[in-house]
Amino acid sequence: MFDLTDRVALLTGSSRGMGAAMAEGLAEQGAKVVISSRKLEACEATAQAINEKVGREAAVAIACNAGYKEQLQSLVDETHKRLGKIDILVGNAGVNPYYGPMNEIPDAAYEKTMKTNVQSNLWLSQMVVPDMIEKKRGSILLTASVAAFGPTTTLGTYGVSKTAVVALARNLAAEFGPHGIRVNALCPGLVKTDFAKELWKNPEAAQEAISRTPLRRLGESDDFKGIAAFISSDEASWITGQALTICGGTDMFK
């Protein structure tokens, strides 16, 4: 089950954390994966680690800043040249340049958040869907967050962007479904990654978060390897338009 042999997976925000773990999970199931983030050196290190673990040249590194359309197009073009047409897209790149009330957010921070977290995923989906239409098959997984499901006084714009990602996934699922292409949103809870360290590095804050989690622990990057492989595989062929909440139980009714 979950065989991804020779399928090409393009992942943004995949040089570390959840993205790297999902790339590793896909490679372990036979996929060829593109490791992408802003810094080529970090991408190359992650690709090398994955190749050593799976015992083959499964991963390649391509640098890209997801906030720029021309760089995303170059990423897709380079993927075509090096690995072929794309079967799987994981839009995991995201930013949160501002912490505080939405009432005070600078325009530049708002625009950066929405462009990188939302519009980049639309751009990428538009770029890769011709490959998937040709194959009459494809999986797009966009990383949202449980922040999509409720208000916050400190991460409001980030939450708004992730609500938009869920809506984007559902709309694309409706548009692309007739072509056999599935689109889902991944909604993690609090995961111990560098991206979220401001929310868990304080021991008291971390313990408070753990106490609100039914499974009594924070998420780890490796918790997302299996879900990425499953959703990308034929075994998930009737799952689309979903907000897949992976959170240890904190948002179980969302």
Description:
The protein contains eight helices and seven strands. It is an alpha/beta fold. It has a single domain (8-191, 221-246), classed as Rossmann fold (3-Layer(aba) Sandwich). It has a seven-stranded parallel sheet with strand order 3-2-1-4-5-6-7, with helices on both faces. α5 (156-176) links the parallel β5 (138-143) and β6 (181-188). α1 crosses α8 (225-232), α3 runs parallel beside α4 and α4 packs parallel to α5 (156-176). The chain is globular, with a radius of gyration of 17 Å.
Rg, Cα atoms, Å: 17 Å
Order of helices and strands: EHEHEHEHEHEHHHE
> In DSSP terms, counting alpha (H) and pi (I) runs of 4 or more, how many helices?
8
Structural class: alpha/beta
Give the uncertain stretches in residue-range form.
none
Percent of residues in beta strands? 5-15%
What's the total count of β strands?
Answer: 7
Ends apart, CA distance between termini: 28 Å
**Largest sheet features:** 7 strands, parallel
Strand order of the largest sheet: 3-2-1-4-5-6-7
Q: Name the CATH superfamily assignment.
A: NAD(P)-binding Rossmann-like Domain
Please tell me the total number of domains: 1
Quickly give the CATH architecture: 3-Layer(aba) Sandwich
Shape annotation: globular
What is the CATH third-level topology name?
Rossmann fold
Mean pLDDT, rounded to whole units?
Answer: 95
The CATH C-level class name = Alpha Beta
Percent range of helical residues:
40-55%
Summarize the structure.
By secondary structure, the chain is an alpha/beta fold. It has 8 helices and 7 strands, in the order βαβαβαβαβαβαααβ.
